[in-house]
Amino acid sequence: MKPVKLFYLKNCPFCKKALRYIEEARAAHPELAAVGIEMIEESEQPALADTFDYYYVPTFYVGGVKVHEGGVYPEEVEKILRSALE
User: Domain Glutaredoxin spans what residues (predicted)?
Assistant: First the structure.
C-alpha cells in the first residue's frame, strides 16, 4: 500500500469537504478504510509543508507523487484512496 499525505488548512471549506468525502468513501467502501492518511495541517507544520511543491489545499500525495491539488469531488477522493491500494 502506498502512503498518502493530505495537506490541508482547518478553516478551508474545500478541505472540510475533502475530509467529509474521505469518511463517506470509507463508509461506502470498507476496503478503503485500510488506507492510512498522514494529515498535515500546513499552518501548524509550515517547515514540512514548504518541502512539498503545491499551492492550493487540499493537496493529496500518493507514494510521494502529487495526485490532486485544490477543490475535490467525492469520486476523485475515492479514486485517490483506491490508487493507494494499487
Answer: 4-65
Q: What is the pLDDT of residues 75-85, one digit of tens each?
A: 999 999 999 99
Cβ contacts of residue 68 below 8 Å, gap of 6+?
58, 59, 60, 76, 80
Backbone angles phi, psi at 43, to 5 degrees: -75, -20
- Give 18-86 as a DSSP string: HHHHHHHHHHH-GGGGG--EEEEETTT-HHHHTTS--SSSSEEEETTEEEEESS--HHHHHHHHHHHH-
Does the pTM exceed 0.85? yes
Q: Which grid cell sits at 14?
A: 474545500
Quote the CA–CA distance of 32 and 69 in Å, as a whole number.
20
